[in-house]
Amino acid sequence: MIIMIKKHLFVTLGITAASLFALSISNHSAPQAHAAANLTYGKITNNSLHRLGTIRQLTRAQLAADHKLTGKQVQQLVYLPLPKRLTAHNFTLSKKALTIHLVKNSYGVKNVAIPLSKLTGIILNRYMPAKYDFVKPKTPNKVVSMTFDDGPDPTLTPKLLKILKHYNVPATFFEVGSSVIRYPSISRMVLKYGNQIGNHSWNHPDLTSLSSTRALHQIALTDAAIYKATGTIPAYVRPPYGSVNSRIGNLYDRPIVRWNVDSRDWAYLNTPKTVQHVLATTHPGSIILMHDIHPTLVAAVPQIIRSLKKRGYTFVTLPTLMQKPLLANLQYFGRGDFRGF
Ligand code: NI
């Protein structure tokens, strides 16, 4: 007990001395000064629980990237004890990384170092070296983001990837885990062609109709499938049918990506009608929902891209469309339109 108190006192005094020294040499926010200062998640995130949730998910993703995990271990990541409170301070901030110090866990991992390059716009600029400063991107008004759900499909997805590459259009593919395990090489191809993969559940249920445990399992199984196929854990979730409530939306520590243009490709199953509908409903800043499991949709994509380009549109990724990183437990519909639950 005495030893503990002494140690505590020593640490406290050490921190105070370091902080005073840091203050005395400069009132500028050099990151090395912050490494010793008594920082909390609240301070470095401007008291944002969405940013803290994003840091929790980045911790899981980094742990999975740094260590070769089994499918079961990936599924259990959601239960890894991580900070929930803004007053928590189980981290060290250096010039290169935010290192999270974990409590004892089944992975046998003590520290996870998230490179600062992944934290731009998540940790406040004043705690970051200048080269990682978040600056709102000056993108044109006429931007759209394309999203493709329900794949991967063994023939249609590769065909679509070639079309997107031909027109130099990046897209996000929301994949179902039960298809990823059948066609893992297609998921790898999606990333290789410069696109992103999101989580669209295991077998496409209405998540709001499931218990929280089962809903978590739908996402965790799919994370494991995508990790096994690609070595990465998807950063976004799109609930099937866009069906989500606050209970489901707050389960995953991930941004929920919705849309504001539904191609209705699944209802038309007709290329000209799909093209016409997308062109009639797209506006600047739209997130467009399509499905890479319908041949009629894949056939519509070249016409949609050419027509939108002719109208002055640029095709961008989701963070570029939103002009900021997407944060956990917020839902995104299009530029300027994101909401909590
Ligand atoms: Ni779907």
Question: How would you summarize what this structure contains?
Answer:
Helices cover 42% and strands 14% of the residues. With 341 residues, it is of the alpha/beta class.
List the main descriptive attributes of the protein structure presented here.
three-stranded antiparallel sheet, six-stranded parallel sheet, 2 domains, alpha/beta, TIM Barrel, binds nickel (II) ion, 341 residues, disordered N terminus, single chain, Actin, Chain A, domain 4, 12 strands
Structure description:
By secondary structure, the chain is α/β, with parallel strands linked by helices. It folds into 2 domains: 39-132, Actin, Chain A, domain 4 (Alpha-Beta Complex), CATH 3.90.640; 143-339, Alpha-Beta Barrel (TIM Barrel), CATH 3.20.20. It is 42% helix and 14% strand. It has helices at residues 2-25, 31-36, 41-45, 49-66, 71-76, 156-166, 177-180, 184-192, 212-230, 246-249, 265-268, 271-281, 295-310, 318-322, and strands spanning 91-93, 97-101, 111-115, 143-149, 171-175, 196-199, 256-257, 261-262, 286-291, 314-315, 331-334, 337-339. Strands 4, 5, 6, 8, 9 and 10 form a 6-stranded parallel sheet that branches. The chain has a 3-stranded antiparallel sheet with strand order 1-2-3. A 3-stranded mixed sheet has the order 7-11-12, with no helix packed on it. β4, α6 and β5 (171-175) form a beta-alpha-beta unit. α6 (156-166) packs parallel to α13 (295-310), α8 (184-192) crosses α9 and α12 (271-281) packs across α13 (295-310). The longest helix is centred in the N-terminal third of the chain and has 24 residues, at 2-25. The protein is globular and about 60 Å long. It starts with a helix and ends with a strand. The model is unreliable at 1-35 (pLDDT under 50). Nickel (II) ion (NI) binds at residues 149-150, 200, 204, 240.
